[in-house]
Specification:
- The structure is a homotetramer.
- The first copy, chain A, is an alpha/beta fold.
- Chain A has one domain (4-182): Rossmann fold.
- Chain A is built from five helices and six strands; from the N terminus they run βαβαβαβαββα.
- In chain A, strand 1 (4-10), helix 1 (18-28) and strand 2 form a beta-alpha-beta unit.
- The first copy, chain A, is globular and about 50 Å long.
- The first copy, chain A, starts with a strand and ends with a helix.
- The A-B interface holds A 12-15, 42, 46-50, 80-87, 89-90, 92-93, 96, 123, 127, 130-131, 133-135 and B 12-15, 42, 46-50, 80-87, 89-90, 92-93, 96, 123, 127, 130-131, 133-135.
C-alpha cells in the first residue's frame, strides 16, 4: 500500500526560519506509512480572481495539483501581528479557488504555531483554524501546539535537538496520524 | 492648516473590485479638511525578515514612507476563506517592521468589510482588528461596517449609486472623522 | 443496537427563543437511529472552582452526568454582543471541569448560530468553535450554519415552517449524522 | 474636580482568584485623580430578555446604574476553555441591554488577561475585545496585558509583591490613564 502523503506548509520565508526547522525535524522523523514533505509557497503570486479568468499562472496550477495529491495537511506558522503571515494565507486562498475547485476539501489537518516569546503564536493558530472551517480541512483539536520560546530548541547547525520539544512533537504527530486514520 | 491625510488600503486586487469601488466613492466624497487616497499594496513582495537585513526592497521603503505620512488609515476589505486576503495582511506586516519602526503606531483607523453574500465580511473585519491591536492602530469601534450583498450598490459604470449605501458610508465617515479629531 | 444520543444545548433562555424553536424542529425530525434531546443549562450556577472543592452542587453533578452519556453534541446559539451568551459558555465550562474530568472530550459536535439580522451569529459561531478546540469536541466544519433573519421561519404557534430553512437544516443534520458515524 | 471613577470587573469568582488579587493591587495603587473600585458581578442572574419585560431584577437595575456612573472600565480576566468566563460575559450582556440602553457606550476601557500557564489568557483577551467593539467600549490597544505564570506574583497573604509584575502593571495603568484623558 502506498505511503500517506502529508504536505507541510511553513508560514515563514526566512532562510533560518524556526518553523522550517521544525518542519525539517518532522520530515526526518516520518513514521512508517507516512511520507512528509514541505510544499513551497513563497513563489505564488497574490491571489486575484482575475488571474483565474483564462489561463491561471503556472504557479497556481502546479500548487493546486500538489495540494490535490495530498492525503493530509500540516501548517507550521509563526505569528505576525497577532495573525498568520500573508504568505501562508495566500497559499490557502490559491488552493481554495476557483469557486467549486477547493483542493483542501475534506482533508485531515493539523496546526502548529510558534513564537520566540512565551505565547507560542496563539493568535495565528486560531485565526488559521477559522479559515480551515471554511475550506473544510478537518483540523485536529487536541493536542494543540503552541511552541513558545522556540529559539532555544535548536543546535548551531539548526537541527531541532531539544528533547522536550522532540517528545512533544513526536506525541503530536502520533495523535495526528491517528486523526488521519480516523478521518 | 494642511488637510488631514487619510490612507485607504483595499484588500482586493481584482480590477472590478467592489471594495475599490467603495474606496473610490469615499475618495470622491472626501469632506473638507480631509484628503483621502488609495495606497497601492499589490506590488509589495511577501514580507520576509531577511529582506530587511541590508537594503530592503524599494517597494518596502516607499510603502513605509507613504504610511508614515498618514494621519489616519482606513481598511476596506473582502473576506477570503473567513479571514482577510493575503495582500492586505502583507501590507500590514511590511509597514509594521523592522522591529521598532512600526509606521502604523498610534494612528486612528477604521475598518469596512464587504461580501457578495449576507454576512458582510464579519470574519475578515474582526481578524483584521486583532492585528490592529498589536500595531497600535486605534480602531474606531462604532459604527461597525459589514456591507453585505455588496454587488447591488453599483451602476453599470462601477459607480456606487445605491442611496442607502451612500447614506451609511457618509454616516460612517462622519463618525470616523470625529474619531480622528478625538485621537 | 441502541439509538445514538445527541444532546442539544440552546444558548438563549428566552421563552420564545428562536434557537429553542430550531432545536424543537430538530428533535421532532430526528432520523432513525438518533435520539435528539435538549439539555437544560439555565439552572447551572456560574462556574467557580471553589464549588468543586468538596461537594459540588447537585446541578453540576447532574449536568456532567448527562453530558457524559451523550454520543454527540449540538450547539444552537444566538449572538450577544458579537459573542456567545454567558449561559452557554457556563455550560461548556461546568462540564469541562474539574481538571482531568472533561466530559466533552472526544465527542463529535456541530454548531448552529442565528440572528434576527443578516449576519447569522457569525461571531458567536466562531468564538464557540475556539472553545471546542480546547475541550476536544470534534466540530464538523462544513456545512457551516449561520441562520440570518431567523424570525421569519416560524408560524404563529412557534413551529419552524419555512421550507427553505427546513431543507437547510435537514441537509445540515444529514451531514452531521455522517460526521458522527465517521468519528 | 471629582476623581475619575474606574470600574474593575474581575472574571473569576474564586475566593483566592489571582485576577482579583491583581485588581486589589491596582485599587491600592490608584494614582491621584483616579478612584478605582471592583464592581461585583457574581450576583447577576443570567441575562434573559424576558426579565426586562416589566420589572427587571433588582440586580440588573443596580448593576446598570453602577456601570452608568463610571468614567472608564477595566476588565481583568482568566481564560476558561480559550475564552472568557461566563460570569464576565454575563456582566457585559446585562449592562448592554435593554436595546437602546447600553451603559458601556463610549467609555474608555482596557483589558488584562492572565493564566497560570505561559500563554497569559490570549484567547480570553481578544474574544473580550470583540465584544467591546459592539458595546462601544473604546479599548486601549497598546500595551497589551497577557500575564502568564500568574501564580508566582503573590506572597503568602495574597499580596502582589513581584516587582517586575508591579512595574508592568504600573506602566500599563499609566498608559490607561493617558488613554482615558485622551478619550
Amino acid at each position: 500500500m502506498a505511503n500517506k502523503q502529508v504536505g507541510i506548509f511553513v508560514g515563514s520565508l526566512r532562510k533560518e526560519s524556526f518553523n522550517r526547522k521544525i518542519a525539517n525535524y518532522l520530515v526526518s522523523s516520518s513514521p512508517e506509512g507516512f511520507e512528509m514533505k514541505i510544499l513551497e509557497i513563497g513563489q505564488l503570486p497574490f491571489y486575484n480572481e482575475d488571474l483565474d479568468n483564462g489561463n491561471p499562472p503556472k504557479e497556481f496550477v502546479d500548487f493546486r495539483d500538489a495540494v490535490k495529491g495530498l492525503d493530509a495537511v500540516l501548517f507550521i506558522t509563526p505569528e505576525y501581528n497577532r495573525s498568520i503571515p500573508a504568505v501562508l494565507k495566500n497559499a490557502i486562498d490559491v488552493a481554495s479557488r476557483p469557486y467549486g475547485k477547493n483542493m483542501w476539501d475534506g482533508k485531515p489537518g493539523a496546526v502548529i504555531s510558534s513564537s520566540i516569546g512565551a505565547i507560542g503564536g496563539f493568535g495565528a493558530n486560531h485565526i488559521l483554524r477559522q479559515s480551515l472551517v471554511f475550506i473544510n480541512v478537518l483540523a485536529m483539536a487536541q493536542p494543540e501546539a503552541y511552541i513558545g520560546n522556540v529559539a532555544k530548541n535548536f543546535d548551531d547547525s539548526g537541527k531541532l535537538t531539544n528533547e522536550d520539544c522532540q517528545k512533544f512533537l513526536d506525541a503530536f504527530m502520533k495523535a495526528f496520524h491517528n486523526w488521519i486514520e480516523k478521518i
